[in-house]
Write a structure and sequence with these properties.
It is a single chain. By secondary structure, this protein is an alpha+beta fold. The protein is about 60% helix and about 25% strand. It has a single domain, classed as Roll (Nuclear Transport Factor 2, Chain: A), CATH 3.10.450.710. The protein has a 5-stranded antiparallel sheet.
Length: about 190
């Protein structure tokens, strides 16, 4: 009897990581105005906060910088994190029309060490992509630490881009680019 109840719970709600993504998707869709209507400034801030809340930007940034992170001063880390979070919010907020049209199919979930990978299929108009959310459970709930789109890791892209920028312009150059919202791809 107990195993039947557990199985019904899993079938009904999915596991924690998948359920967190489903809830985020529902919250985002509820925050969007009807198609054709412009999102107000307060609505834009709310939307950006929803998108950013489930993403562990600090972990993404630390992973992207690798050993460089440990070499930064606390002040550099803080400025870089604030600039990265700002950039992440703004870029996520620019995806409103895409999110309105998106259909997400949740495929499966797999454990990879301390992390869980939630595989999805994202369809927008006539284009379909395989999107895997790499997540970890924190005291604040499930958080995304990487997004792998069609087998390309967002964190690995950041790592390559940030390394090029830091190599040419130093950490201050990267911070300035992220603060400006300009090209941080190097």
């Amino acid at each position: 009897m107990r195993s039947a109840v557990i199985l019904l719970f899993l079938l009904a709600g999915g596991s924690g990581a998948t359920q967190a993504l489903r809830e985020r998707d529902a919250e985002i869709r509820a925050a969007l105005p009807p198609s054709g209507q412009v999102l107000s400034e307060s609505g834009q801030h709310r939307f950006e906060a929803i998108v950013a809340r489930i993403v562990d930007t600090r972990q993404m940034l630390e992973s992207a910088l690798g050993p460089r992170w440990a070499k930064l001063t606390p002040k550099e880390r803080q400025r870089l994190l604030e600039a990265f979070e700002h950039r992440f919010r703004v870029s996520g907020g620019s995806q409103i029309d895409t999110l309105r049209e998106a259909h997400i199919e949740y495929l499966n979930e797999s454990q990879q060490g301390e992390r869980v990978v939630v595989a999805t299929r994202l369809a927008v108009k006539d284009e379909t992509s395989e999107v895997k959310y790499v997540m970890r459970e924190t005291s604040a709930g499930w958080r995304i630490v990487d997004v792998v789109i069609d087998d390309v890791s967002t964190v690995e892209n950041y790592r390559a881009s940030f390394a090029r920028i830091i190599g040419r312009e130093g950490v201050e150059g990267l911070i300035r680019r992220l603060e400006r919202g300009g090209d941080a791809k190097g």
